[in-house]
Write a structure and sequence with these properties.
Shape: flat
Strand content: under 5%
Structural class: mainly alpha
Oligomer: single chain
Number of strands: 2
Order of helices and strands: HEEHHHHHHHHHHHH
Helix content: over 70%
Distance between the termini: 54 Å
Largest sheet: 2 strands, antiparallel
Length: 314
């Protein structure tokens, strides 16, 4: 009995001796995450259950803010724009980087494209520009009077296609989507390129020996092996699309007439001075933030499970 107790004590002591170093390294990061992520998250959820302008004492309203969201036409408008923004950007920000990465990777193996590092650097350069700065740059490009886009269209004899891109309700959201796709191309290209480097070359060669053409090798070999990478890219794109704010705010501030409002811009307006009012509504804005969080988490979980199921099928 005493021997067994001694062995158990020694086992716990050995475990503690081996675990203290990893715990010591993880503890600072855990404290930072707790202080700056989880505590504010819980606080936001609590504030979303109150009516509070940030100045006077809050009033408990329970789920009242969420009930008001369902009846809020501006919120539903922003939600619709967010869904459209996510669908379009996820599609293009996944397909285009994948195709460009495959092209560059094929060039490396076949020597058809020289200096792939230069090309990857060029594609990646927009990523290092802050979202706010890129929004300002593209606002200048889209300027209806002196913008480069309309000037080029005029020089090409296509003046009829020139538009006030950010002032037209029919073109403002697609114009912002173009900026998002342009800026994110390099980031997702690098992810796909790394995934392509992890595919054994022998599998491509075996498929070629069996008579598979380039398209068949891409769809039957490359795509199935890239399924986990594609899932990661889709999830990242979805989360970034749901919380899109910087570029939209800098370029249009949700205008004109709410035509480019998303959940992020509507949250900002509501938190720091609601539409038609100078009074902030922090409780209502927190409810919008919780909706953004829930959408991001639930959709991401669904996408990861779907991606895992498709990977098993392959």
């Amino acid at each position: 009995m005493a021997v067994a107790a001694y062995r158990r004590h020694r086992g716990w002591r050995d475990t503690l001796r081996t675990m203290w170093l990893p715990v010591a390294f993880l503890l600072p990061a855990a404290v930072i995450m707790l202080a700056f992520m989880y505590v504010p998250m819980v606080n936001t959820i609590l504030i979303s259950l109150q009516s509070w302008n940030g100045l006077t004492a809050p009033t408990w309203v329970g789920l009242g803010n969420y009930q008001d969201l369902v009846r809020d036409a501006l919120f539903l408008n922003a939600l619709g724009h967010t869904v459209l923004f996510v669908l379009v950007t996820v599609a293009f920000q996944t397909i285009i980087p994948l195709l460009v990465a495959v092209l560059l990777f094929s060039g490396i193996r076949g020597k058809a494209i020289r200096g792939s590092v230069v090309f990857r650097t060029i594609y990646f350069m927009p990523v290092v520009i802050s979202l706010a700065i890129s929004g300002l740059l593209w606002s200048i490009i889209y300027d209806p009077s002196n913008g480069v886009l309309n000037l080029v269209l005029g020089d090409l004899g296509l003046r009829g296609l020139a538009k006030p891109w950010l002032a037209d309700t029919s073109t403002v959201l697609p114009s912002i989507m173009v900026v998002s796709i342009w800026q994110s191309l390099g980031f997702y290209l690098v992810i796909f390129f790394a995934g392509l480097q992890g595919i054994p070359q022998e599998m491509q060669e075996a498929a070629a020996i069996d008579g598979a053409n380039a398209w068949q090798r891409f769809t039957r070999v490359t795509m199935p092996l890239l399924a986990p990478v594609i899932t990661v890219v889709v999830v990242l794109n979805t989360i970034n699309g749901i919380k899109a704010f910087d570029q939209i705010w800098v370029m249009t501030a949700g205008g004109p007439t709410h035509a480019s409002d998303t959940l992020g811009t509507y949250l900002y307006y509501t938190a720091f001075g609601a539409y038609g009012s100078a009074n902030p509504e922090l409780g209502y804005a927190s409810a919008i933030g919780v909706v953004i969080l829930l959408l991001s988490v639930l959709i991401s979980i669904g996408q990861m499970r779907l991606g895992r199921a498709e990977a098993y099928e392959y």
